[in-house]
Amino acid sequence: MVKVLVSCRVTSFLRLEPVKSTPSPVLRTALLCGVLTGALCLAWVLFLYFTGSNPYGPKRTLSSFFPPIAAVISQILLRRYYINGPGLGRSIGVGLATSLIAAGIAAAGLYLFARMAGPELIAQHLTEARQLLIATKELYLKEANGRQQFEATLRNLATTPQGLAQDEFVKKLLLGIVLSIPGGVFLRK
User: Fold this and answer.
1) Terminal-to-terminal C-alpha distance of the chain
2) Do 24 and 82 meet the contact criterion of CB atoms below 8 Å apart?
3) Residues 69-90: pLDDT tens digits?
4) Do 63 and 169 form a contact (C-beta atoms < 8 A)?
5) Alpha carbon 60 to chain centroid distance?
6) Residue 166 to residue 64: CA distance in whole angstroms
7) Rounded alpha-carbon distances, angstroms, from residue 15 to 9, 10, 136, 150
8) CA dist., res. 157 & res. 162, Å (int)
9) Cβ neighbours of 7 (radius 10 Å)
10) DSSP label at residue 160
11) What pTM value is reported for the model?
């Protein structure tokens, strides 16, 4: 009997059948997807740290793709609450809210991690980042205004936990917004 109930719930979830009315499905869906995605981004940073990789380095940027994917998933999940589709405003809104919540939690988590890990790890990251930039200096110099771009990139490296958190927030939010709008347009019905 229990197996039948579980399989019915799973198949109704996969078919995206409308569910009974719940208060504020947009907010509930955005909170669920945003919190899970923010936690996943923090888990990725912790995974990099415990495996000996640089948690602030280029591998961290792989988690920047989590919020846009979560925004589209939240838009798909929101369709379950509306028979004729959620509409353009709700669909885009849930994607934007999911991205905002995920970016905020990921940035707060990275800030707390950076504060707890200490400045030594940030200094090690800055050394690696400068070495990577110096190795690619020739590529910068081949382009117009290459020297200015190289110097700006070198100058704009995040050196504090606040800078790392701000960088994390902006990147995740921008990518989430970029995919939320077209996703909302296509998933409004």
Assistant:
1) 35
2) no
3) 999 999 999 988 888 888 899 9
4) no
5) 11
6) 13
7) 10, 9, 49, 51
8) 12
9) 10
10) S
11) 0.82
